[in-house]
Amino acid sequence: MSDVIVIVTERFERRLSDETGKLRVEMATEFGKVRAEMAAGFGSLRTEMAQLRAEMIERNGELLKWILIFGITQTAAVVGLVRLWR
Question: What is the pTM (predicted TM-score) of this model?
Fold first, then answer.
């Protein structure tokens, strides 16, 4: 009876080891696929972020231009009013 238990236990452990090995290989394969998909996704994300950064720089340039124009016209208006009142 004890020999049967030992044989069954050994078979179970061998089968468990085989299945665990197969599972590890399958998990490694799938994790590799997920990593590749993530790398591709991050590549496109970096491209989109670079485009957004360029757009923000362009808009900041436009905003600076209009702020300077506004400041110059306000200064000219104040100088004109001061000269009128003298």
Answer: 0.50
